[in-house]
UniProtKB/TrEMBL annotation:
Domain Serine aminopeptidase S33 residue range list: 2-83
SUPFAM superfamilies per record: alpha/beta-Hydrolases
Pfam families: Hydrolase_4
Name used for this protein in its record: Lysophospholipase
Organism: Piscinibacter aquaticus
Amino acid sequence: MLDYRGYGKSSGRIESEAQLHADVRAVWRAVAPHYAGKRVVLYGRSLGTALAASLAAELQPDLTMLVSPYTSMEAMARQHYPWVPGALLRYPLRTDEHRPACAARCCCCMATATS
């Protein structure tokens, strides 16, 4: 489990979505050697599902579990806050862009936030 920049016990500040993806890949590079030759399961929950799906599309792990996934932050905002302009979103976090690449080994759990 990791804390993104500025969350939990992590310091720093998120300046871009690219930083979030870079943080996830840095954690992967740090832990992967400890699990070489073993089955890999990536897990993403809620906001982390876009990041997990993106990493899964790249790595093609044995299984990817997306718990409470959503299509994109724009779709989520449109559903819950339709009066807020989409241009105000700083991070699109598009789960839908990466799910097709990991669909064969992807398990989406619980109800999705948007269809």
